[in-house]
Amino acid sequence: MTDDENRVAGLVLAAGGGRRLGGRPKALLPHRGRLLVEHAAEVLRAGGCAGVHVVLGARAEEVRARAALPGCALVDNPDWEQGMGTSLRAGLDALAGTDARAVLVLLVDQPGIGPEAVARVRRAYRSPRSLVSAAYEGVRGHPVLFGAAHWAGIAATATGDRGARAYLKEHADAVALVECGDVAEAYDIDTEADLTHLE
Fold first, then answer.
1. Is the alpha carbon torsion for 119, 121, 124, 126 positive or negative?
2. What is the pLDDT of residues 61-72, one digit of tens each?
3. Is 182:191 a contact under the CB 8 Å cutoff?
C-alpha cells in the first residue's frame, strides 16, 4: 500500500432522523448484535480506510452515549434536518484539516455493503483527483470515493438529500466505476418494510 493509499479516510453519514421509520434514527437500529452506526464504521475500517469520521445529527447525544466507536472522529451536523447534503458538507469540512488525500463515503443505512466493496473502491484510488464509485450491474451506487481535489466542488453543490449526486453527474466522464454487485447488496433501510434486512 502506498503512502497515498494510506490517506484514504472513511466517512459514515449517520445523521438522518429516520422520518419514514417513525422518527427512529438509522444510526441506532440494531443489526447483528450492534448498532448500524457501529457496523458501518467497522466496515470502513475493515475495508482499509485510514481514520474514520462519523457525522451525527438526530439524537446525536444518544448515539454518542450508546455507540462504541473507538478511534472514530465524531462530527456533529446541527443542520441534519435539511438533508444528507449538509452531512456530507460537515464531513468534508472536518476532513479538510487532516492529511487525507481522499475520502470514501458510506451511508449508515446500507448494511448490505461490506468490507470487500469498500476495499475494491479504495484500491481504485490513484490521486487526489480520483472519483470512484461502486457499481451494481453497471449502475452507480455506494460507496463512493472523492479525491481531495473535488471536495470544495462537492461541498458547493451538496444540497438537500442529493449529496454529491449533481457533482458526480456533472463529472460523469471522470468517475471510475468498480463493479461490486458480486460482493454487496446496495439496499437502503428507509421504511418499515426494509427492516426485514436487519438481523
1. negative
2. 999 999 999 999
3. no
C-alpha cell at 55: 457525522
Q: How far is CA 48 from CA 8, 79, 119, 196, in A?
A: 8, 30, 6, 29
DSSP 21-39: GTS--GGG-EETTEEHHHH
Which cell numbers in the block locate residue 124?
481504485
**CA–CA gap between residue 9 and residue 19 (Å, rounded):** 29
Q: Are 62 and 22 in contact (CB under 8 A)?
A: no
CA–CA separation, 37 and 43 (whole Å):
10
Q: Using the CB atoms, write b or e for 59-76: b if 16+ within 10 Å.
A: bbeebeeebebeebbbbe
Alpha-helix residue ranges (DSSP H) falling in 102-163: 115-123, 151-157
Torsion sign, CA atoms 135, 50, 86, 106 = positive
Beta strands in the chain (DSSP E): 8-14, 30-31, 34-35, 52-56, 73-76, 102-107, 131-136, 139-147, 175-179
Q: Inform me whether the pLDDT recorded for 5 exceeds 60.
A: no
**Cβ neighbours of residue 137 closer than 8 Å, sequence gap 6 or more:** 179, 181
What is the residue whose three cell numbers read 470487500?
Answer: 116
> Model confidence over 158-198: pLDDT tens digits?
987 778 989 999 999 999 999 999 999 999 998 899 999 99
Query: Could you tell me where the beta strands, DSSP code E, fall in 27-78?
Result: 30-31, 34-35, 52-56, 73-76
